[in-house]
Design brief:
Immunoglobulin-like, 5-stranded mixed beta sheet, 36 strands, 546 residues, 11-stranded mixed beta sheet, 4 domains, elongated, mainly beta
Length: 546
């Protein structure tokens, strides 16, 4: 700007002349306004005075372009509804925290420099939108009685999903007072990897709050008491006096006083239980041809005072003195359930087995008994196995084992009462013979050989031989049929000549028979193996090695 200044004497009578001069005035440009970056106000109260209204702060930061040459500056500000700006100017320190609202800023390059044009900045308040939370309860199991809770979805109600890492979680007992604090260890925590774990049954409330304090939501779920069974082993026992002619014998230390059993095969039983001798004459019209025994659970060392009477085992005989069939029924007292049964009916006091050329032995392991059922995961109060063929004996031994269970809740027990049904295991007539004594095996083997032509030949060879090809002096036979039987094994060459016959007694799927290769072999020769059980015939092939 150029101005003309004229100086005139104040006294009109002055002899001085007027004088003038040209003056140039340069006005600097106003400071530029910076670029603002605004962070909205969160929902976390920054007012430490609980008696005052809450204060929720956002922030604004200002920056100049890098080539502006402005390294520092001052500012003054006011709320847009006010008239006066703050004073004195403030050296800009970095982001400025302010409550939500609209503000006018002016900027100065020096503390007493020119002020820029106003710059209006608005700091908004974040919305407090509710959250939609979906929970997946992992129900407690019977082993630990503990479960867990997973958050499978979290998002704004009616909106997009959000990042679970932006939220803090609290877990509450939903049955407790609503004012009670969160459960210990679950107060405002990051979402745990794998969710909330090791939780007992109960009602739970999950509360999620955004780390900005705004968005929040609650979801409720229940961890149910698992339906569990507590099971014990149980065995049947005759309710007789020790001097009764027919009685029960404890596995541990009692043996029948008879001489026709090979007690050199005796064993050290590592379990309690009883074998029970029942004579055919004990089945009469008076007892409806049914002999009943007590069923005891957890009677360690065969001490029934330590155990619990949980039911009865009824043995019913249908036939005459020459022979007939037996059915074995388990009847449970209220509150007790059958999870599986194992039955032995035989001429010997205990299950007798022999594997190949090894010395025979007795066993009381229930899994070795010939008549079994695991109930396919079902529970029942009445289970029957029938018919078991009994011939040519005046009596027989019965070992009746059961997995006896109780429910962990009365609700579960009541549900089973309405849903459980009796189970009957109907034995195939080819697989229902009682187990005979090995002392009669010669007669049985002769019968098996002479009658094998009438047996059914199976398409599937339920046995295998190892090694195959065989190069050593032994053949091992492994059985896959689900019953106990004597076997006759015949080896033929391809011209049909019988080379060798082997026999074994009372084998089943747990047995292995080992025989010496005492017939002449040729390298690479194929041989036919014919195996006959008491019920069917199998054929297979083996190959001699080099």
């Amino acid at each position: 700007y150029i101005f003309k200044y004229t100086v005139t004497p104040a006294d009109q009578d002055s002899e001085c002349d007027d004088d003038d001069a040209l003056v140039t005035i340069t006005i600097d440009d106003l400071p530029p306004t910076p670029t603002p970056q605004v962070e909205p106000a969160d929902c976390i109260n920054d007012n430490s005075d609980p008696q005052s209204d809450p204060v929720y702060l956002g922030s604004v930061a200002f920056t100049y372009p890098g080539d502006s040459g402005i390294d520092s500056f001052y500012y003054i500000y006011k709320e847009s509804t006010e008239t006066d700006y703050s004073d004195p100017p403030i050296l800009y320190p970095g982001p400025i925290s302010l409550p939500a609202g609209t503000y006018d800023f002016k900027f100065l390059l020096e503390i007493d420099g020119c002020e820029s044009d106003p710059l209006q900045v608005t700091i908004n308040q974040l919305p407090s939108d509710p959250l939609d939370i979906t929970l997946n309860p992992i129900q407690p199991d019977c082993a630990t009685n503990l479960g867990g809770i997973e958050v499978t979805h979290i998002g704004l109600l009616g909106g997009a999903d959000v990042n679970v890492e932006d939220y803090l979680f609290s877990l509450f007992d939903n049955d407790a007072d609503p004012l009670d604090p969160p459960l210990e260890g679950y107060d405002g925590i990051e979402y745990p990897e794998g969710g909330f774990t090791n939780l007992p049954p109960g009602n739970y409330r999950v509360f999620a709050l955004g780390k900005n304090g705004c968005n929040s939501g609650t979801a409720i779920t229940e961890l149910l008491v698992p339906e569990c069974m507590v099971c014990e082993t149980a065995f049947a026992k005759r309710n007789d006096t020790p001097d009764s002619p027919n009685r029960s014998y404890c596995f541990i230390d009692e043996r029948p006083d008879e001489t026709n059993f090979n007690w050199t095969l005796d064993f050290d039983a590592n379990r309690w239980g009883w074998t029970n001798f029942i004579s055919i004459s004990e089945f009469t019209v008076d007892n409806d041809y049914t002999f009943s025994m007590d069923l005891y659970a957890a009677a360690g060392q065969c001490d029934i005072n330590k155990g619990t009477l949980v039911g009865s085992v009824d043995v019913t005989y249908t036939g005459d003195e020459e022979g007939g069939t037996v059915s074995v029924s388990y009847n449970m007292l209220p509150g007790y359930w059958l999870g599986g049964v194992h039955v032995y009916v035989g001429q010997e006091p205990y299950m007798w087995r022999q594997q190949g050329n090894k010395e025979g032995e007795y066993t009381v392991a229930p899994g070795q008994y010939p008549f079994n059922s695991d109930n396919a995961g079902e529970y029942t109060y009445l289970e029957t196995i029938e018919p078991i063929s009994v011939e040519g004996v005046t009596g027989f031994y019965v070992i009746a084992h059961a997995d006896v269970c109780t429910t962990n809740t009365e609700e579960y027990n009541q549900r089973l009462l309405t849903e459980a049904e009796p189970i009957t295991i109907q034995l195939n007539e080819r697989k229902n013979s009682m187990i005979y004594s090995p002392s009669s095996r010669d007669k049985q083997q002769k019968t098996t050989i002479t009658s094998s032509t009438s047996l059914v030949e199976s398409a599937d060879p339920l046995f295998y031989v190892a090694p195959n090809p065989f190069t050593n002096s032994e053949l091992n036979f492994y059985y896959m049929f689900d019953y106990t039987s004597n076997v006759t094994i015949q080896i033929y060459d391809l011209n049909g000549r019988l080379l060798r016959t082997y026999t074994d007694t009372l084998v089943n799927s747990t047995s292995t028979s080992t025989f010496n290769v005492d017939f002449k072999t040729r390298s690479g020769q194929v041989y036919i193996v014919r195996l006959a059980t008491d019920r069917e015939i199998f054929t297979s092939k083996i190959l001699s090695g080099n």
